[in-house]
RNA signal recognition particle
Amino acid sequence: MSYVDGFVLPVPLDRMNEYKKMARKAGKIWMEYGALSYNECVADDVKPGKSTSFPQSVKLKAGETVVFSWVVYENKRSRDQIMKKIMEDPRFAIYMDPKNMPFDGKRMFFGGFKPIVEL
């Protein structure tokens, strides 16, 4: 069964083009190392909730939007191997520096998921 990493983060609207450029480059690195798919999506029909919501989860500020991303791998072992390579790749390392991030990395959250239904 596959394995999925999911990410949710706030991106300033005035830095969206910069974010998309970074995401394309990062996605190519993920795919080069063996990810099955790399996906980046911007909020379209996402409203603040009463208790929880995507905007609340990242403490969304005025002039920002939510980005939801996921990467699919063959399995967890493959994901761990790919992530190790990515974290060691100098092409990706530049994005890990907060000065180079076109978003607030402190408000991003992410995690690994084992699918329970795949159709």
